[in-house]
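Inverse folding, one chain.
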């Protein structure tokens, strides 16, 4: 079996080095100084690769530079080889599952960075029978790389020129849903288009989110943007079914489906609701030790453009998305307990590389709630967030946020931030 383990490592070696790049100075694009021929060509190339607008191509170049942007495009379109599992700690231990796989000659290995994940040589179309049985029993569950939960929004422009989004469905990027592509425009609107927002990465990165969230036994936890995926189960398992877990879904259909999933996997301490954000902040103010916000976002620079998925198109779309994210994070802060004898935490994450959806949103919370501060996430993956960006200056503690890029870390990209109320005693960090 040791030889199989070595071969598994060999299998991943090309994957680990595929998107490495030398440390070169990023080529920045400044539209205010005009675009020379080279810059125009660079923007055109990135615009075409990402199937996006010139405006968003420039935004990507400002974050990455040309070389890193093109590496990112290749990485997000690449699905890693293998079958990825997470142990359900409520029903089994990783050691037990590993022993059973070893006895059945299933070629698997244990990633060093996780205590609950198991990786198997193979592909999703040929899952070993033993593993299928383990999944059906709820002892472990599949992680899907390059797959996200989607919210399908109706993009409406009314005669005054104002833009708004109306939720009309949800699904996953696997489905490539565009269910309203044949809808007729409402007479009251100037035009109707579809746009998809993304949240809840369903690959191995979700295990990293668990490390950042770090819920403890007996705590009260609020997940503000829950979906019918493995994240809620992971939180419940880390809490060992103690305390209180409230999972607030973004779509009414997710309530019943998530309840069924939780029951199958043995999570008993969770209440599922689809309460509105404003009502949540009022009725559950100062009620939770930890609040988790996996905010719906544009997916720019993380989610690969696919047919059937209409992504954020321009600054008007982005402005509406960011406004919703800011309302979410303010509401999340309202739900945190503020006690002197115990510390509460808020975790904010997106699957977008845009500063407008990440550092800008965190700074908005810090400006609105001066008593809050950014603290270390507890993970070393990725690079620090921006403390300043193209003339904008953020809190000096913004360096504690993390940007995990697909082409550098070989997993779905995310932005991670952890916040708490200011406290001089750093022992309260956890």
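Residues assigned per position:
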């Amino acid at each position: 079996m040791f030889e199989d383990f070595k071969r598994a490592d060999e299998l991943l070696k090309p994957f680990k080095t595929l998107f490495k790049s030398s440390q070169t100075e990023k080529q920045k694009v400044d539209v205010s100084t005009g675009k020379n021929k080279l810059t125009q060509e660079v923007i055109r190339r990135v615009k075409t690769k990402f199937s996006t607008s010139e405006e968003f191509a420039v935004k990507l170049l400002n974050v990455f530079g040309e070389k890193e942007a093109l590496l990112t495009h290749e990485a997000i379109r690449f699905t890693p080889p293998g079958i990825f599992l997470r142990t359900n700690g409520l029903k089994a231990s990783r050691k037990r599952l590993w022993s059973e796989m070893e006895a059945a000659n299933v070629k698997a290995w244990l990633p060093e960075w996780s205590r609950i994940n198991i990786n198997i040589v193979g592909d999703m179309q040929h899952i070993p029978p033993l593993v299928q049985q383990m999944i059906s029993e709820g002892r472990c569950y599949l992680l899907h790389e390059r797959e996200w939960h989607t919210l399908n929004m109706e993009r409406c422009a009314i005669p005054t020129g104002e833009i708004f989004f109306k939720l009309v469905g949800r699904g996953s990027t696997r489905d490539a849903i565009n269910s309203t592509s044949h809808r007729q425009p409402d007479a009251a609107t100037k035009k109707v288009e579809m746009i998809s927002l993304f949240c809840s990465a369903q690959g191995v990165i979700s295990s990293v989110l668990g490390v950042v969230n770090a819920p403890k036994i007996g705590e009260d936890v609020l997940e503000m943007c829950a979906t019918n995926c493995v994240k809620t189960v992971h939180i419940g398992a880390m809490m060992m079914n103690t305390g209180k877990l409230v999972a607030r879904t973004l779509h009414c259909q997710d309530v019943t489906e998530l309840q069924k999933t939780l029951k199958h996997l043995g999570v008993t301490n969770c209440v599922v609701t689809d309460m509105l954000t404003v009502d949540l902040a009022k009725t559950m103010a100062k009620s939770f030790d930890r609040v988790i916000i996996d905010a719906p976002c544009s997916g720019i620079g993380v989610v690969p453009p696919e047919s059937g998925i209409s992504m954020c198109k321009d600054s008007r779309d982005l402005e509406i998305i960011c406004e919703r994210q800011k309302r979410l994070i303010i509401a999340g802060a309202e739900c945190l307990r503020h006690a002197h004898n115990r510390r509460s935490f808020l975790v904010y994450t997106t699957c977008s590389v845009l500063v407008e959806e990440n550092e800008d949103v965190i700074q908005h919370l810090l400006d609105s709630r001066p008593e809050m501060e950014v603290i270390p996430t507890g993970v070393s993956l990725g690079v620090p967030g921006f403390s300043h960006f193209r003339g904008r200056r953020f809190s000096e503690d913004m360096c504690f946020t993390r940007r995990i890029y697909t082409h550098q870390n070989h997993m779905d990209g995310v932005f991670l931030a952890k916040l708490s109320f200011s406290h001089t005693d750093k022992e309260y960090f956890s």
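The longest strand covers residues 163-172. The mean pLDDT is 83.
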